[in-house]
């Protein structure tokens, strides 16, 4: 597995559950098409799982 993952917001978090909006913000994603590189650990994977329908995930190089 990669040590880091690149997470990109592909759908807006507007009109989503407050918990989902909070997760998007805590991951550091602001606008659609914004990306962030995060460590690949259980905490990050759990957050990504909660908002999987809003983001794409790929290995960071």
From TrEMBL:
Known Pfam families for this protein? Ribosomal_L30 (PF00327)
The processes (GO biological process) annotated in the record are: translation
One GO molecular-function annotation for this sequence?
structural constituent of ribosome
Q: Where is the signal peptide?
A: none
Query: Residue limits of the Large ribosomal subunit protein uL30-like ferredoxin-like fold domain?
Result: 5-55
UniProt GO cellular component terms: large ribosomal subunit
User: Which terms are listed as keywords in the entry?
Assistant: Ribonucleoprotein, Ribosomal protein
| Subunit structure comment from the entry | Part of the 50S ribosomal subunit.
**Family, as annotated:** Belongs to the universal ribosomal protein uL30 family.
Matches recorded under HAMAP family: Ribosomal_uL30_B (MF_01371_B)
Protein name according to UniProt: Large ribosomal subunit protein uL30
The UniProt gene name for this protein comes to: rpmD
């Amino acid at each position: 597995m990669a040590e880091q993952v690149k997470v990109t917001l592909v759908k807006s978090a507007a009109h989503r559950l407050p918990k989902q909006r909070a997760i998007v913000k805590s991951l550091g994603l602001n606008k659609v098409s914004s990306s962030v590189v995060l460590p690949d650990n259980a905490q990050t994977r759990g957050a990504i799982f909660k908002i999987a329908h809003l983001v794409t995930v790929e290995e960071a190089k």
